[in-house]
Specification:
Elements (H helix, E strand, L loop, with lengths): L3 H20 L4 E6 L6 E10 L2 E9 L23 E9 L2 E8 L6 E9 L4 E7 L6 E8 L2
Antiparallel strand pairs: 1-2, 1-8, 2-3, 3-4, 4-5, 5-6, 6-7, 7-8
């Protein structure tokens, strides 16, 4: 029993560190909250690949559209589920920027900045054209 206690402490310390690491990165699953309706619309999975963040739609919550009919490039009429909507985002201090985000509703592609808030439980996602002042921000909530 005494030998088990140090092992349990070590396991607790490692899992606590893993939870903290997750909270310091946008990697994970996020519920997209509309800045217009304030309702959850979709779940987006964000992952890191070769030092860049990417994101894809994994679940639609209230949409009747299943295809990206508004997309203007090779994504046109592709299924929304599994569609990569975030790419090329790199860490820049406390924010992630330099990449692009697709708005499947309009088919428009914007520059994107992302910043964690509330201890990593929220992600502020700002899509913009040209200057960051000319855009809109959504707050996404981390799925547990």
């Amino acid at each position: 029993m005494r030998a088990t206690l140090p092992l349990l402490r070590l396991l607790l310390a490692v899992t606590s560190c893993m939870a903290l690491a997750d909270a310091s990165s946008p990697v994970g699953n996020w519920m997209n909250i509309s800045d217009k309706t304030k309702k959850a619309e979709a779940v987006i999975q964000i992952w890191e690949e070769k030092g860049e963040l990417h994101g894809k739609l994994t679940k639609l919550l209230d949409s009747k559209d299943t295809l990206c009919t508004s997309c203007k490039d090779e994504r046109k009429n592709k299924p929304l589920i599994g569609l990569e909507i975030i790419w090329g985002v790199k860490k820049d201090g406390d924010i992630w920027s330099g990449g692009k985000i697709l708005d499947p509703d309009s088919g428009d592609i914007y520059s994107v900045k992302m910043e964690l808030a509330d201890g990593g439980q929220k992600l502020k996602v700002r899509g913009f054209m040209g200057f960051s002042l000319l855009g809109r921000t959504q707050t996404w909530v981390r799925e547990q």
